[in-house]
């Protein structure tokens, strides 16, 4: 486990540099997430104090001028992700808040570690609490699960990939979390990689016809073809596929498919993969293992906010 650097070495915890997350997308996510909790989805008031006033519990029980400090704390061991987005949630409702990082995305943390420390108006901290935790817990859960897969195939040369099986409207965050866990992203959507599956082949008439049609319409796009058998894998690579999705093949068949392809296309194992067989599958020589469960089934990492009123 890597040691967590001292907070003094941390950059601004709200900085998105190096995350690959789009500034406008993150701003919109923060707005929508807070609006869901504070206004039932109606546009969030621009003025922070007006937005915070929608937290009926805190508005009734916390003096408007009361200040305090809150620690965002890990309640379980794991890999953290989404901290810059969580920090922006707090900053949206308390622009003058002081936010100090105790960890960075991608760090391995232990139960009890402080990930962020936020000092500001207590009403704002409490109004932002659940939205910030939901984002960071979800992203950290994905990063933690991804790291387990990456560790399972370490040394084999195989790379762990995600899929398009993401939570609607959260794909950039969830795929970022996969990267924080040491995995890689496959395609972001239907626009950046062509994935020819059985229905496309049926519509086009053959694998070769489907590949040719994609090449004609989108010549610069990577073309991936799904194969269920070694023969289909060979047919696809001979048709000009760049990438083969080897679907639900047992290890011995995967090994044969990799040998038959002989480096003419990249190979990806998918379908029915579990951590228990990850290393065996990786040892067949495939370039990638794609795991939909990283984004559709990872449990959250338990995080909490501990408040210290001034």
What's the helix and strand layout?
Blueprint (H helix, E strand, L loop, with lengths): L22 H16 L9 H5 L3 H6 L5 E8 L3 E2 L3 H11 L4 E4 L6 E2 L4 E8 H31 L6 E3 L9 H10 L12 E4 L1 H7 L2 H11 L4 E6 L2 H9 L4 E5 L3 H11 L4 E5 L4 H8 L5 E3 L2 H4 L6 E7 L1
Parallel strand pairs: 6-11, 7-8, 8-9, 9-10, 10-11
Antiparallel strand pairs: 1-5, 1-12, 2-4, 3-5
Function: Involved in the catabolism of quinolinic acid (QA).
EC number: 2.4.2.19
Enzyme class: transferase
Structure, described:
With 310 residues, the protein is of the alpha/beta class. Helices cover 42% and strands 18% of the residues. The chain has 2 domains: 7-150 and 299-309, Aldehyde Oxidoreductase, domain 3 (Alpha-Beta Complex); 154-296, Aldolase class I (TIM Barrel, Alpha-Beta Barrel), CATH 3.20.20. It has helices at 23-38, 48-52, 56-61, 83-93, 122-152, 171-180, 198-204, 207-217, 230-238, 251-261, 275-282, 293-296, and strands at residues 67-74, 78-79, 98-101, 108-109, 114-121, 159-161, 193-196, 222-227, 243-247, 266-270, 288-290, 303-309. It has a 6-stranded parallel sheet with strand order 6-11-10-9-8-7. Strand 8 (222-227), helix 9 (230-238) and strand 9 form a beta-alpha-beta unit. Helix 9 (230-238) packs parallel to helix 10 (251-261). The longest helix is centred in the middle third of the chain and has 31 residues, at 122-152. It is elongated and about 70 Å long.
């Amino acid at each position: 486990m890597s040691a967590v650097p001292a907070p003094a070495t941390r950059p601004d915890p709200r900085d998105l540099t190096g995350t690959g997350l789009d500034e406008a997308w993150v701003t919109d996510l923060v707005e929508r997430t807070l609006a869901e909790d504070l206004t039932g989805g109606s546009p969030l008031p621009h003025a922070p104090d007006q937005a915070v006033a929608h937290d009926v519990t805190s508005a009734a029980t916390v003096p408007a001028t009361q200040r305090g400090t809150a620690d965002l704390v890990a309640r379980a061991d794991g890999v953290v992700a989404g901290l810059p987005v969580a920090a922006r949630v707090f900053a949206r409702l308390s622009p003058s808040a002081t936010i100090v990082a105790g960890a960075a995305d991608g760090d391995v943390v232990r139960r009890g570690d402080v990930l962020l420390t936020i000092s500001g108006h207590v009403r704002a901290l409490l109004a932002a609490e659940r939205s910030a935790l939901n984002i960071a817990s979800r992203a950290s859960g994905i990063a933690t699960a991804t790291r387990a897969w990456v560790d399972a195939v370490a040394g084999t040369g195989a790379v762990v990939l995600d899929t398009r099986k993401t939570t609607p409207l959260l794909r950039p965050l969830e795929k970022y979390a996969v990267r924080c866990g040491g995995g890689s992203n496959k395609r972001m959507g239907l626009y950046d990689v062509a994935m020819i599956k059985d229905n496309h082949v049926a519509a086009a008439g053959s694998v070769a016809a489907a590949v040719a049609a994609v090449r004609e319409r989108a010549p610069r796009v990577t073309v991936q073809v799904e194969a269920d058998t070694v023969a289909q894998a060979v047919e696809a690579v001979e048709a000009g596929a760049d990438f083969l999705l080897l679907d639900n093949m047992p290890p011995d068949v995967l090994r044969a498919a990799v040998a038959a392809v002989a480096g003419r296309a990249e190979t990806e194992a998918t379908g029915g993969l579990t951590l228990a067989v990850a290393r065996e599958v990786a040892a067949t020589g495939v370039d990638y293992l794609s795991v939909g469960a990283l984004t559709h089934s990872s449990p959250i990492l338990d995080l909490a906010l501990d408040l210290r009123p001034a």
